[in-house]
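Lecture notes, unit on binding sites. The following record was shown on slide 14. It pairs a sequence with FE3-S4 cluster.
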Amino acid sequence: MHVSVDETKCQGHNRCMILAPETFEVDDMGFAHVPEDKREVTEDHREAVEGAARNCPEMAIVLSGG
Ligand code: F3S
């Protein structure tokens, strides 16, 4: 599974950071991104990343692939 943040939708709610801190990082303005080396989600992070995607109020977290 692949994850990224749609930066045109992110409003800085930071729930992703709380729910999956090992995948998401937040910049100085509070907007989230996924560092390039974290975009391919490993099995041990999958549940946290899926939870973050469900809980983002802006639906800004994009999951793709299996
Ligand atoms: Fe942005 Fe959603 Fe996270 S609005 S900071 S991607 S919870």
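Take-home: The CA atoms of residues 30 and 53 lie 17 Å apart.
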